[in-house]
Structures are given as structure tokens and as C-alpha cells.
Amino acid sequence: MQRRDFIRTAAASAGALATGATSLEATGPYVNRGFRARPIVLSDLSGIAFNNGGPESAVERAYRGITEGEDVLDALIEGVNIPENDPTESGIGFGGLPNADGVVQLDSCCMHGPRKWAGGVAGIEGVKTPSRVARAVAELTDHHLIAGIGAREFARSLGFEIHPDLNTDNSRQLWLEWQRRVDPGHWLDPNARLQGQGRPGEETDPDVIRRNRSGNGNEGALATLTPQEMRRRSDAYLSAGLDMVDEGLIPAHSFWGTINCNGVSADGDICGVTTTSGLAWKIPGRVGDSPILGAGLYVDNDVGAAGSTGRGEANLYNLSSFMIVEFMRQGMAPKDAGMAMLERIRANTVEPRLQREDGNPSFDVRFFVVNKAGDYAGVAMYGTAENRFAVCDENGAREETLEGLLEG
User: Fold this and answer.
1) How far apart are CA 12 and CA 24, in angstroms?
2) Longest distance between any two alpha carbons in the chain, whole Å
3) Between 40 and 1, whose confidence is greater?
4) Are residues 345 and 366 in contact, defined by beta-carbon separation less than 8 angstroms?
5) Nearest one of 231, 239, 233, 236 to 255, comparing CA atoms
6) Residue 200 in this model has a pLDDT that exceeds 60
7) What is the DSSP letter of 94?
8) Which of 141-155, 171-185, 241-255 is most confident?
9) Phi/psi zone of residue 338: left (φ > 0), alpha (ψ -120 to 50 degrees), beta?
């Protein structure tokens, strides 16, 4: 190929990625072994609960694409773009809950089973559909992960629209409410002020308030915090967010973010994509499991796929999605593989701060597992808070019940 032809082809591919056109063509290292499978798409609940005002949910759009002959990964990404663009879904994409500074930072990764391609972005700002940028990383570069400012500028160079702020009125108001809870000395409740709330003679100097609470005056800057103070601040951030979940201000699935969507074609080709705004109010720059291959997503075209929502750090430590696929490689059914991984996470959760009084994990984590034949399962550590997941097959789109490892 002449250099000018290569440049012309690459430019056309980049333009297609940015505008939403599919670009994967049947010219890659693909081998059809004549395998016949049950076409299916499964995801967490976001894959069926949000349609951005359109006629289809993510799992419906992905399944239609797969059965109409689209590349499996293209179909899945078209599917997850629906909730990514939906401002009422505050767990991913546009309107996702921001970090502690009020900035929306998004993560995503994708894996193409037959081509052995993978790509991801972490901490990207300004792009509503990070799943498309993750696919561009897989298609156009020799890398698997691009992060931060570099990911944003990579997207800009391909023609993606870069928005100055991905917050919606809802996500911004929730962030302000969270700030009032973790830093009441600086962030005042206007309703409380109008009602004259507050005790006469109450201390109003924010620095004095924080010094009285923590025993020192260095709470204002992360750079001056001791490790113990950093831990206390991190725990306070999480506690305030969980209180907002308990009070119904934030849907539980939005606090932890994330949609994972995996699909199998009739030929047994398997792909997967995960996309998220990450943990609400996270320390700026925090990266969870979603963009990390083997943690938040793993695909092996000879075996199956697994992806996750919930506590990302648990999946990062245990490389959970990779291990589930390996369990299936050893002969386990999808449900058994998922349960075995949940048991491993339970056994590895030894810090008291992460345990309930009975010693079991104080967090939830969920897995969506499918094998090459189209057999599937949805499992969770508890399966009580967010206890449903989405499936779409020849019987249509529906919710099914997650099976929990533990009670509670």
C-alpha cells in the first residue's frame, strides 16, 4: 500500500469513529470455525432501563445489530451509546456523577474476541461516549489504554466533540449537596440559611471548624494531609455519598456507576464493552476496574466473556473478569464461575473497614457472564439492592434476577 493510500484509509476510519459510523470490517484475522451459538446480549440494569427518549434500550439495539449482521463489538457500542448519551442515567457518560472536584471523568474499555483486539480510556473528560474512544484505541493504535489529558486529546484528534462540561443540572446539584455534607464550613445550605437555622454563637470560621473536628489545621489541602487524615477524608467522602444513596437522593447503581454489556453472535463470536463515570465523588484521577482488561471486562473468543459493576477495587485486586473466564475454560458453567469468583473476593476481603459485623464484605459486586454457546448468568455478592440484570435474545428484552452469594 502506498503511503498516501494508507493515510487516506486511516483518515476515513478516524472520521467514521468520531461520527458514529462503524469501521470494523471483515478483513481482520478472523476464523469462522462453523460454530453455531445462541445469539444473546446481557448487561447490568442500565442496559434496559434507559433509552434516551428513543425506541430501544442498549440490549435491544445491540441484539438487533448482532442478528442483522453487524460486527458484534460495533453493535454493543451502538447499544451502550444510548445510556451514555442519556442525561437521566447518572452512572455513565453525559450526566455521570463527577469526582470530588465536580469534574466528570469517564472510563471505558472494549474487547473484540475474534480479532484479539482491546482498547480503553481512563479519566477522559469532555467526551460523552468514551466507549467509542476505547474502540478507536483498539483499532488505530498499538496501545490498550490511554488516560487523562492524553485520552482527551487523542479523541479530539479523531474529530470527537469535546464538551467543556459533562455535568447536567442534576449531577451538579447532587455534587453541591455532597459538598455541603463533607465541607459544611465552606459550602452552606441556602435553605437552612433562609430559615435562620444555626445556633447563636456557633463557630463560623471553616478552618476552626475543621481543626476542632480533626485536631489539626491541615485539612484544607491534600498535599498536607497525613496518611491517617487522608484515610479519614476518603472514608468521609464515601460515607457522605452512601448516606445520599440511603436517603434516595442517588440511585445505588449511579453511585458506583458503570454499564457492562457482552454479546455473542450465532457464529459464536464474543465481544464486550464496559463504560462508566466511576465512583461518585472519587478522588480526582481515581481509576477503577472498568477500563482495565481482566478486571472490569474480559473476553476470550474460545470461551466466553465476563464483566462487572460494583466495587471496582475488589475487581482490580482479584482480576475478577479474567478469572471468571478462566474458570469457564476449566469447564465451569457461567453461574458457577461467577459464584467461585465472588467467593474468592469474599475470602480476600480482610480489612475491617470493608467488612460487616459478620466478617463478610460490606460492599456489593455483580458479574454478567456468558459462554461461547450463549449460556449466561447474572450473579452478585448480595443481590438485594440492585438485584436485576438485562437480557435480550430471541425472546426479547427482559429483566432477570441476579443470584446472590450471601444473604443481606
Assistant:
1) 12
2) 80
3) 40
4) no
5) 239
6) no
7) T
8) 141-155
9) alpha
Bigger pLDDT: 241 vs 150: 150
pLDDT of 255? 82
CATH 3.30.530.20 is right for the domain spanning 31-166+253-404: no
Grid cell 478472523 in the structure block, residue:
30
pLDDT at 111: 98
Measure the CA–CA gap between 334 and 10, rounded to whole angstroms: 39
pLDDT value for 252:
76
Give how far Cα 150 sits from Cα of 19, 156, 285, Å. 20, 10, 13
Residues in CB range of 383: below 8 A, 6 or more apart:
364, 366, 401, 402, 403, 404, 405
CA distance 258 to 324: 19
Q: What is the sign of the dihedral through the CA atoms of 131, 137, 140 and 144?
A: negative
In angstroms, the Cα distances linking 80 to 136, 203, 328, 403 are: 15, 49, 26, 24
For residue 81, give the C-alpha cell: 451509546
Res 154 pLDDT > 50 = yes
Radius of gyration of the chain measured on its C-alpha atoms: 22
Mean pLDDT of 18-31: 47
Would you state the pLDDT for residue 197?
Answer: 55
Q: Please name the helix (run of DSSP H) or strand (run of DSSP E) that holds residue 49, with its range, or none.
A: helix 46-49
User: What's the rounded mean pLDDT across residues 215-228?
Assistant: 57
Spatial neighbors of 196 by CB under 8 A, at least 6 apart, are: none
**For a pLDDT cut of 90, what percent of the chain falls above it?**
71
Can you give the pLDDT at residue 105? Answer: 98
Within a 13 Å sphere around the CA of 302, how many CA atoms are in the beta-carbon half? 7
The CA distances from residue 394 to 41, 186, 358, 391, in Å, are 10, 55, 43, 10
- The DSSP symbol for 262 reads E
Domain ranges (residues) in the chain: 31-166+253-404, 169-193+206-249
